[in-house]
Structure formats: C-alpha cells, structure tokens
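Researcher: Next entry in the queue.
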Amino acid sequence: MFNSINNHRLIACELLLCLLPLFTGCAVFESRDVGVTTIVTRPGEAAASKVIADFGLIGRVLVKADKRGFSGGVHWQHTADSDEILLLSPLGQTVAHIDRGPEGVRLITSEQKTYYASNVENLTEDVLGWRLPLAGLQFWILGTHFPLTMSEKDLDTTGRTVAIRQDGWRITYLDYFSQPVPAYNLPRVLELSRIDLKLKLVIDNWKIRD
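Model: Structure for this entry, 210 residues:
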C-alpha cells in the first residue's frame, strides 16, 4: 500500500519536473553533447558577442548545390553599410563581383554581364544557381547569430561557438585560429548547410578594422 502511494508520488514529481521548463521559458540548457551548452535567442535580442562593424578576409569556398556548384577563392570586404565580394576561379580569375550598398546589390559576371537586385540572396540564386545567405553570414562568419530571427547556438566550455541553427541553416564551426586577434575568437573553417545546399569556407587571413 505504502509502496504504491510512494510510486504514484514519484511519478507525479517526475512529470512536474518535466513540465516545469515549458512554463519557465528557460533559454539556456545543456546539450546532449558533453561540455556543450545551447543558448536559444529570440528575434530582436542582441548578438551575444561583440560584432565587428568592419572586416576583411581572404579565403576559399566550396559550394555544393542541386543546380550548380563552385570552388575557388573569396575576397570579402565588409562594413556596416556595404559589402564587396569577389569569387575567384582556382586560377585567380574573377567569376563574380558582388557589391552591396544602400541602393541595392549588383553582380558582375566573368562575361561582364551586370545584374541588379534588392538583396544578395535572391541575386546569387538567380545568377549563380546557389544562394549566398549574406544577411546571416556577416554574423555567422564571426561566430555569432543574426540578431533579428530566432536561433539556437551551441557553445563549448571556453565560450566558443560550436554550431548555430538559424533560418533553416546549420552552421558548424570546424576550426578556429590558434592565435586569435586580440579580443576576438575568429573562425578559420566553417560549414553552412541546408536541405539543398552546402557551403564550406576556409579563411586564410582576417583583417579587422575597429
């Protein structure tokens, strides 16, 4: 009799503990991966780490898409108001020159054909056959989330980002520079994937302008 009552009380307590997080709205929890903490951010919440307004990088990119792919170099100059991205062939020839500014986006191909659009995502998908998610990538490239949509971010025990899940993308951080720029932990290798597209970025050189 007493064992039956105690068992019912134990089951009730376990159910209460399971339901409690649904009502408290906790945004931080332990991941199943040992040593990884997951943080859930809601739209409008500021990026968890300092965002660099101006940066430049030189690296390589590998794209696998249903329609088309790409493999070659990338040069990217970013400011708060503009982006200039060069996609280069393995021999160093310009495959695409992308400019983003207050008035919109322009893409010039190797055939010197010029295309215009309101955003990089749609323009690259229409012209190149694969989508470059620049709105999020300008944050993901720095190891943090895009602050205007909901995200899940996995952090290791040192506070570095292991992965981000946001806007249908999974961003996995495979390596960081062993000697980071002062005050910044900068990724060296990251992989972006969604159902129909995978991009791998290897960064050879960062230039930070505070």
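Model: The helical segments are 2-24, 120-128, 134-140.
Researcher: Noted, moving on.
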